[in-house]
Amino acid sequence: MRIDIDVFRTAVLKLLDHTEKVKGKTVDIPDDLYWFIPKESLNDPTTKPANLTLGSLTDDWTEVSAIAVGRKDPFGYGLVWAASLLRALGDRTY
Predict the structure, then answer these.
(1) Cα distance between residue 46 and residue 68, in whole Å
(2) Which H or E run contains 92?
(3) Residue-wise pLDDT tens digits, 51-81
(4) pTM, to two decimals
(5) What is the C-alpha separation between 11 and 59, in angstroms, rounded?
(6) SS (H, E, C) 6-73
(7) What is the domain partition of the chain in residue ranges?
(8) CA gap 77, 52 in Å, rounded
(9) Per-residue CA distances from 26 to 20, 21, 30, 37 (Å)
(10) Residue 22 contacts by C-beta under 8 Å, 6 or more apart in sequence?
(11) CA–CA separation, 83 and 77 (whole Å)
């Protein structure tokens, strides 16, 4: 599989525009903690993950917003934090 970054960027922006249209400028997420599956287990559907830990949307938001305002330089793992936030938004936007 190959992802075209320009196409993906366009899709994510359209999805965020849709979320804003449906939910407004902010979205309340009542749940904070979620199960984090280590990447070694995430893409292996043949085994049950053994090393589950808790992730925190609050922590993810703190990191992503720090990147947004320039307090932290962007780097690849920031996309993992953003993905958790996108999942939370997607679960609450219809």
Answers:
(1) 37
(2) helix 78-92
(3) 899 999 999 999 999 999 999 999 999 999 9
(4) 0.90
(5) 25
(6) HHHHHHHHHHHHHHHHHHCCCCCCCCCEEEECCHHHHCCCCCCCCCCEEEEHHHHHHHHHHHHCCCCC
(7) 30-92
(8) 18
(9) 7, 11, 13, 27
(10) 93, 94
(11) 10
Among left, alpha and beta (phi > 0; psi -120 to 50; other), residue 67 is alpha
Question: Quick one: average pLDDT of 33-37?
Answer: 95
**CA 60, CA 38: separation in Å to the nearest integer?**
15
CB 36 within 8 A of CB 55: yes
Comparing CA positions, the residue from 22, 17, 19, 92 lying closest to residue 57 is 92
